[in-house]
Amino acid sequence: MENFEPHIKCSRELDVRYAVIPGDPMRVDRIAEHLDNPQLVAFNREYKSIIGYYKGIKVLAISSGIGGPSTAIAIEELKNIGIESAIRIGSCGALLKDIKLGDLIISQAAVRDDGTSKTYIKEIYPAVADIDLLNASIECAKTLKYNYHVGIVRSHDSFYIDDEEKISRFWGSKNILGSDMETSSLYVIGRLRGIKTLSILNVVVENEENTKEGIGSYVNGLDAAVEGEKREIILALETIYKYHNK
Ligand SMILES: O=P(O)(O)O[C@H]1O[C@H](CO)[C@@H](O)[C@H]1O
Ligand SMILES: O=c1cc[nH]c(=O)[nH]1
């Protein structure tokens, strides 16, 4: 009998090593457009999954939902079904002014300003990308001629707190490139469980732009952030292809 994981509702029978992980379940459908023979696997809670092929390589696309807790559950259950490498394709706010809408941030490491990863291990344990996936993605981004930045991001838990602007300015002043809500959990828990991880982020809010308005225009499909999303999908899939064939 197939042993389905309780939240993601996927099993080892999928026989897949690579996962692409957006936060938003709707982004899974947009990943499907880049795969051959995409098939819906499951849609339970925030976890929507499809399986398909990219240039002959089997890939699972599965949403993580928002934040560390749901991401942690996804990583744990993906490990159980045999995933070896996972690339997040997320959206983020830029913390520096030369990083523009639709630019990609290839996250080398993350500031652990989330709660979830701290429940696993103390903050002196670093949140860093897998070096092979990181290098492959940089090479692919160069070949594709995308606008990209490589550096450290900050993952946080609270979107609408009163002093978010002040906090963002502080981290920007420390040369942190952008902020999201999942990269640090992905990197720490992935590392602890032996899954190679990388997080590629699409800038949907520029530095000092109003966060709510920026995200609103992204979800309404109005601007360069939509092109950025397409690019991060292609970059993640090309990275898997390059890494697989190294
Ligand atoms: O677009 P996703 O991948 O969900 O990423 C970002 O968007 C959500 C907030 O709008 C958070 O999950 C944040 O990390
Ligand atoms: O500003 C932003 C935009 C997206 N996601 C975040 O976490 N912050």
UniProtKB/TrEMBL annotation:
Its EC number is 2.4.2.3. The keyword S-adenosyl-L-methionine does not apply. CDD domains: UP_EcUdp-like. Keywords: Glycosyltransferase, Transferase. One of its GO terms (molecular function) is uridine phosphorylase activity. The keyword Glycosyltransferase applies. One of its GO terms (biological process) is nucleoside catabolic process. Coiled coil: none annotated. It catalyses: uridine + phosphate = alpha-D-ribose 1-phosphate + uracil. Residues 17-202 form the Nucleoside phosphorylase domain. Pfam families: PNP_UDP_1. InterPro entries: Nucleoside_phosphorylase_CS, Nucleoside_phosphorylase_d, Nucleoside_phosphorylase_sf. It comes from the Bacteria. GO terms for cellular component: cytosol. Belongs to the PNP/UDP phosphorylase family. This is Uridine phosphorylase. It comes from Caloramator quimbayensis.
